[in-house]
Amino acid sequence: MIKLDRFNEKILQEVEKDGRVSNVDLAGRVGLSPSACLRRVQELERQGVIKGYRAVLDRAALGSGITIFVMVGLSEHLKKDSRAFERAMARAPEVRECHNVTGAVEYLLRVEVADLAAYKAFHGDVLGTVPQVHSITSYICLGSPKDERA
């Protein structure tokens, strides 16, 4: 684990809020000179603390109007079955996130589709054709009052 001082913590908070902040503005926000700030940011990137920068897209504007969280149970608990399922989900553009979880099922998916008809097609044509899938439970997202993903 990397030990962070208060300047690095502040840099990470600011960059997480706005990945496009200029180095000069970032330096002003955290109380460092631009050159010292840039060195710290580059070191955080080098160490892998800052893994990258992303654009936050409006999925509804792109035609993905519904988010559905899907709990998936596998029929077998073998590594080969998990890997096969994960490969199938990696190929499915509707699957925006795939998490291996503990509990009653093995996976939690975040699926984004245009509408219920599109989800029905995904459910039958994608999830329904993966031989490792034993159970599927779908939760339609009604809203996301807090979403800090970038």
Walkthrough of the structure:
By secondary structure, this protein is of the alpha+beta class. It has two domains: 6-46, Winged helix-like DNA-binding domain superfamily/Winged helix DNA-binding domain (Arc Repressor Mutant, subunit A); 66-140, Lrp/AsnC effector binding domain/regulation of amino acid metabolism (RAM) domain (Alpha-Beta Plaits, 2-Layer Sandwich). Helix content is 37%, strand content 20%. The chain has five helices and four strands. The chain has helices spanning 6-17, 23-30, 34-46, 79-91, 116-125, and strands at 66-74, 95-100, 107-113, 133-140. It has a four-stranded antiparallel β-sheet. It starts with 5 loop residues before the first helix and ends in a 10-residue tail after the last strand. The model has no long low-confidence stretch (mean pLDDT 95).
C-alpha-based Rg, rounded = 20 Å
Quick one: CATH class of the largest domain? Alpha Beta
Strand order across the largest sheet: 2-3-1-4
Please give the domain count. Answer: 2
Fraction of residues in helices? 25-40%
Q: Can you give the mean pLDDT?
A: 95
Q: Biggest β-sheet: count, sense, barrel?
A: 4 strands, antiparallel
Count of beta strands: 4
Straight-line N-to-C gap:
23 Å
| CATH H-level homologous superfamily name of the largest domain | Lrp/AsnC effector binding domain/regulation of amino acid metabolism (RAM) domain
Number of helices: 5
Helix-strand string? HHHEHEEHE
Approximate strand percentage: 15-25%
Categorize the overall geometry: elongated
- Could you tell me the CATH topology label of the largest domain: Alpha-Beta Plaits
> Could you say which structural class the secondary elements and strand pairing correspond to?
alpha+beta
